[in-house]
Amino acid sequence: MRTTLDLPDETFRKLKAEAALRGFKLKELVAQFIERGLAAGDSSPGSVRPHGPFPVAIERTSYPIPIAREADGTVTPYLSNEQLYAILDEEDLAQYQRVLGVLGEGSGQ
């Protein structure tokens, strides 16, 4: 799964250097560190100090948050990863079929 992390510049430099020293890709080293941290399982109070503002409890609604709202008020519905991949596959297939159609017309068949 892909995600984005907001890391301090110095932390990123250290991670990148450590990955190079160990012969890993950066993403492999980060995944390894996260797995080790999760395996350690230290969830006692005070074991992790948050930086910046303290977390705020957010009340969950019973429906997913819309991804986008158009100017006319139309809401783009929530889609799961599986649904998004299906849409991308359909678009790829349609584009592939268009390319084949153009190639077929240009070959004099």
Q: Please summarize the sheet with the most strands.
A: 2 strands, antiparallel
Rg (CA only)? 23 Å
Tell how many strands the DSSP assignment holds.
2
Name the strands of the widest sheet in spatial order.
Answer: 1-2
Q: Assembly state here? A: single chain
Q: Into which percentage range does the β-strand content fall?
A: under 5%
Structure description:
The protein has 109 residues and is mainly α. The chain is built from three helices and two strands. Helix 1 packs across helix 2 (26-40). The two termini are 44 Å apart.
Quick synopsis:
This protein is mainly α.
Question: Mind sketching the topology for me?
Answer:
Blueprint (H helix, E strand, L loop, with lengths): L8 H14 L3 H15 L27 E2 L5 E2 L4 H26 L3
Antiparallel strand pairs: 1-2
InterPro entries: Ribbon_hlx_hlx (IPR010985)
Protein name: Antitoxin
Question: What descriptors fit this protein?
Answer:
109 residues, two-stranded antiparallel ribbon, 50% helix, 4% strand, extended
